[in-house]
């Protein structure tokens, strides 16, 4: 049976003749990726029911022929800002000619987003979710942060909730222009009426802890207000220079600190120690941002060698990085950040799941969600080996063929 014939098949589905199966479960196969050659998978009711060598596969109601190709867990993209309006392609072009990225362009997107209708914002979010899925992403976190009024943040979060379960309140993205004379008053708004209205719509609270955005003290207050309202913390930090973001994230037990482009030895040590906790703080690297802002790439090798847990995510947004492709991020991480192809694939799947504190995605052991990608390739190395080439043959989410 062809993958396209399975959409409505009830009962169990055998994905057979998998050339290389990446389970991310060392108990099931070779190495940290739990790699199984000549493998099969059985899917049942949206979950993985069985994974192993195809010679031992149990019978199933329907069969999909992987024809010797590779199956990987669906990518877990733990960082995006896909609810927005407007276009910043000229800002990108200027950067490529030497204009530095300052994050000030966030205000351009805020102005356009406030003007946009709900229908237009939802259409953009849906299109980008579809685009990501067609490239193998089956879990996608989505942040607010381009509304920056109580009403607009509520609007953006409601729309985010229509495309994902992983919704993040980021009213502390930047101080909006109407508070230029009194940034403290904006922090009062975020930690008061805004978080109160937004918390029921989100799982996470995030803050841009960076020079020119929110300082350490304000960031700590903002995260604490989110936690008080039942949200779990995550942090944007160390993007434009060294700063307090990483240490603050570790101190408050954030699930992740994202960017990590500029790290001191102390930051690396803190992330290594945080990785040993039962609920670690993950270092989420965003290679597409450093590509699109002409920043240096972070040294992922240094982090992994120190013992930190590393994830890769897209940060898909109209300003600092307008890609939804985790394959692109994997290729950069391998070519320029010192990860092996195995480590990069792990970081974009199991690493992303750790950054979202999820144990049901990012791996394909029995019991996991049946979120998987069939690659037009014999093994996962091809993700970095053939950069820029579409290699996704089919995607299943919760056991349903979606691409
Ligand atoms: O993650 N750093 C802050 N926020 C976004 C950039 C958003 C923008 O430039 O519009 C980021 O890179
Ligand atoms: Fe971001």
Automatic annotation (TrEMBL):
Zn(2+) binds at residues 79, 81, 236, 315. Its EC number is 3.5.2.7. Its cofactor is Zn(2+); Fe(3+). Pfam families: Amidohydro_1. The keyword Cytoplasm applies. SUPFAM superfamilies: Composite domain of metallo-dependent hydrolases, Metallo-dependent hydrolases. InterPro entries: Amidohydro-rel (IPR006680), HutI (IPR005920), Metal-dep_hydrolase_composite (IPR011059), Metal_Hydrolase (IPR032466). 4-imidazolone-5-propanoate binds at residues 88, 146, 173, 239, 320. It comes from the Bacteria. GO terms for molecular function: imidazolonepropionase activity; iron ion binding; zinc ion binding. One of its GO terms (cellular component) is cytoplasm. Binds 1 zinc or iron ion per subunit. Its main location: cytoplasm. N-formimidoyl-L-glutamate binds at residues 146, 317, 319. Keywords: Cytoplasm, Histidine metabolism, Hydrolase, Iron, Metal-binding, Zinc. It is found in: Cytoplasm. Fe(3+) binds at residues 79, 81, 236, 315. Pathway: Amino-acid degradation; L-histidine degradation into L-glutamate; N-formimidoyl-L-glutamate from L-histidine: step 3/3. It catalyses: 4-imidazolone-5-propanoate + H2O = N-formimidoyl-L-glutamate. Catalyzes the hydrolytic cleavage of the carbon-nitrogen bond in imidazolone-5-propanoate to yield N-formimidoyl-L-glutamate. It is the third step in the universal histidine degradation pathway. Belongs to the metallo-dependent hydrolases superfamily. HutI family. This is Imidazolonepropionase. It comes from Nocardiopsis kunsanensis. The lineage of its organism: Bacteria, Bacillati, Actinomycetota, Actinomycetes, Streptosporangiales.
């Amino acid at each position: 049976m062809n993958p396209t014939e399975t959409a409505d098949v009830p009962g169990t589905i055998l994905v057979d003749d998998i050339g290389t199966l990446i389970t991310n479960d060392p108990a099931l196969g070779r190495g940290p990726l739990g790699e199984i050659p000549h493998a099969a998978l059985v899917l049942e009711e949206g979950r993985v029911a069985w994974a192993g060598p195809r010679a031992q596969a149990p019978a199933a109601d329907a069969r999909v022929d992987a024809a010797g190709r590779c199956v990987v867990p669906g990518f877990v993209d733990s960082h995006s800002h896909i609810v927005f309006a407007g276009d910043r392609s000229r800002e990108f072009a200027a950067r490529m000619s030497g204009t530095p990225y300052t994050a000030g362009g966030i205000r351009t997107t805020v102005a356009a987003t406030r003007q946009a209708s709900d229908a237009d914002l939802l259409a953009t979010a849906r299109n980008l979710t579809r685009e990501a899925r067609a490239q193998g992403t089956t879990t996608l976190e989505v942040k607010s942060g381009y509304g920056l009024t109580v009403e607009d943040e509520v609007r953006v979060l409601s729309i985010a909730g229509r495309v994902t379960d992983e919704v993040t309140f980021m009213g502390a993205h930047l101080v909006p222009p109407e508070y230029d004379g009194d940034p403290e008053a904006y922090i009062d708004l975020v930690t008061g009426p805004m978080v109160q209205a937004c918390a029921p719509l989100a799982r996470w609270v995030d803050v841009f802890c960076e020079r020119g955005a929110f300082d350490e003290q304000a960031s700590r207050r903002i995260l604490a207000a989110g936690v008080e309202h039942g949200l779990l913390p995550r942090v944007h930090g160390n993007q434009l220079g060294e700063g307090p973001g990483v240490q603050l994230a570790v101190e408050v037990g954030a699930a992740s600190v994202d960017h990590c482009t500029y790290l001191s030895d102390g930051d690396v040590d803190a992330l290594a120690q945080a990785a040993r906790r039962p609920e670690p703080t993950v270092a989420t690297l965003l290679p597409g941002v450093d590509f699109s802002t002409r920043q240096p790439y972070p040294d992922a090798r240094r982090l992994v060698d120190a013992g930190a847990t590393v994830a890769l995510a897209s940060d898909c947004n109209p300003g600092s990085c307008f890609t939804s492709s985790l394959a692109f991020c994997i290729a950069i991480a391998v070519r320029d950040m010192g990860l092996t192809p195995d480590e990069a694939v792990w970081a974009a799947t199991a690493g992303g799941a750790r950054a979202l504190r999820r144990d049901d995605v990012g791996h394909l052991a029995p019991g996991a969600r049946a979120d998987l990608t069939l690659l037009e390739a014999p093994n996962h190395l091809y993700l970095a080996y053939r950069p820029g080439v579409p290699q996704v043959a089919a995607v299943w989410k919760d056991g349903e063929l979606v691409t």
